[in-house]
Design a protein that fits this description.
By secondary structure, the protein is an all-alpha fold. It contains 19 helices and no strands. The chain is globular.
């Protein structure tokens, strides 16, 4: 945005932000539907066991660990919208392979694992790029509003994505249902490619800097900054435990509670309305009660409600209603934490290295998710689904307990600014 141009009265009056929002919303719909459908393809269409499902989820998450640091430095050298467009095209093409292979009788676990890995690789590129893109599109003072809007769309996707995926699995079979994800990735491509605001590119001197040096700069900032370090560690503790829990949860619903595919989608979709509420609350509660208070209390409440799930039995309407209530509350509190901690991270990170910091936080915070998924698959086989679900639900409390002892808990109603930032 040129210095002479006044900022729009609202982000919703900003045409390029709306295009980013529409594209990100479509991408999240595709991702949320795929997160339900890909494991259900393995479980329902291919008869996969507990460890195979764990491996499938781990392979899809492995690119976060393998590529995040490289992708962060790479995105900082390029236009974020170009990265998002290419990632959307790639995911669309890769997912179309699944129904084609199914119709030809060629679909098996190795092919499904390969598809999951490639989608995971391209999702790393998209996720880093869209978070860096927001900072390049809006002023620092509008980050909370921008994050609230984007996370609100992610919440809406959590309503529609799993429900759509589960319904299509019941109506069309799982391998065909994955076409819904491909469609939404294509829609994301069509919207994001229309963003017109120029993005400043780093000068030749910056591009000549070796990528490993740029990666080191991102790592050094996070290690040396107490707040960013706490963000990374608390994210890692949560994502590791949550990956293990979700691997078991996706098996627990159809195999222990004997819920049909449509009911599984409905239960998972209940997180969406709660997450939408959490996104709306994130624009108000931190500035009213303090960022630290909101982060710690919401994280404890989010993790606590999941302890109710292992006690549920049967597939009655009461069980489904209880699962939906748990997921609704989990959605409210976990989304409140997610948006709030994202706003903290963006506010204290210099704009030129946003991509690297996003990627490094993803690397630290989500890099352990493949191990968490493998652990979930192992525990499910060793302890049984109900016991292992209880164990992993308990471990979710590690993240808020750490946050309570970290500098994050001491944050007040105003965030610290970036040195030299004119908006700070």
């Amino acid at each position: 945005m040129k210095a002479s141009e006044p900022p729009p009265a609202s982000l919703w009056h900003d045409r390029d932000f709306r295009r980013l929002w529409i594209g990100q919303t479509a991408s999240q719909l595709g991702a949320q539907a795929g997160q339900v459908v890909l494991p259900l393809i393995a479980v329902i269409a291919l008869g996969a066991g507990t460890q195979q499902v764990g491996i499938l989820r781990a392979v899809q998450q492995a690119p976060i660990l393998l590529l995040s640091l490289f992708v962060g430095a790479w995105v900082d050298r390029r236009r974020s919208r170009d990265v998002m467009v290419l990632a959307d095209v790639g995911r669309t093409v890769v997912l179309v392979v699944v129904p084609v292979a199914h119709l030809l009788g060629l679909l098996d676990m190795p092919l499904l694992v390969l598809v999951a890995f490639l989608v995971g690789v391209l999702s790393v590129y998209f996720d880093v790029a869209y978070q860096a893109s927001l900072v390049r599109l809006v002023r620092r003072g509008r980050l909370a509003q921008g994050n609230s809007a984007l996370e609100g769309s992610r919440s809406a996707a959590q309503i529609a994505g799993p429900a759509l995926g589960g319904a299509l699995v019941s109506l069309l079979t799982a391998p065909i249902a994955i076409l819904a994800s491909a469609f939404f990735f294509a829609l994301s491509f069509l919207s994001i490619r229309r963003i017109r605001r120029p993005e400043s590119m780093p000068g030749p001197a910056v591009r000549r800097v070796r990528m490993w040096r740029q990666i080191h700069e991102g790592l050094h900032l996070i290690v040396s900054n107490p707040l960013l370090r706490a963000v990374g560690i608390s994210s890692a503790l949560f994502q590791f435990s949550f990956a293990a829990l979700m691997t078991i949860y996706l098996l627990f619903l159809p195999r222990t509670l004997h819920l049909p595919g449509a009911a599984v989608g409905l239960v998972l979709a209940a997180m969406g309305p709660g997450a939408l509420v959490g996104s709306l609350l994130s624009a108000r509660l931190p500035t009213r009660y303090g960022y630290g208070v909101v982060l710690v209390s919401a994280a404890l409440l989010a993790d606590g409600v999941m302890l109710c799930v292992p006690a549920l039995r049967g597939s009655s309407a009461g069980t489904i209603a209880a699962l939906m209530a748990v997921n609704l509350l989990f959605g409210v509190f976990s989304q409140l934490v997610d948006v709030t901690i994202t706003t903290v991270r963006q506010a204290i990170t210099p704009i030129p290295i946003q991509g690297r910091v996003v990627a490094t936080i993803n690397f630290v915070g989500m890099g352990l998710t493949p191990l968490g998924s493998l652990l979930g698959g192992y525990l499910a086989g060793a302890l049984g689904l109900r016991t292992s679900l209880l164990v992993t639900a308990v471990t979710l409390a590690l993240s808020p307990l750490f946050m309570a002892q970290s500098p994050l808990a001491r944050l007040g109603k105003d965030l610290p600014g970036i040195a030299g930032d004119p908006d700070g």
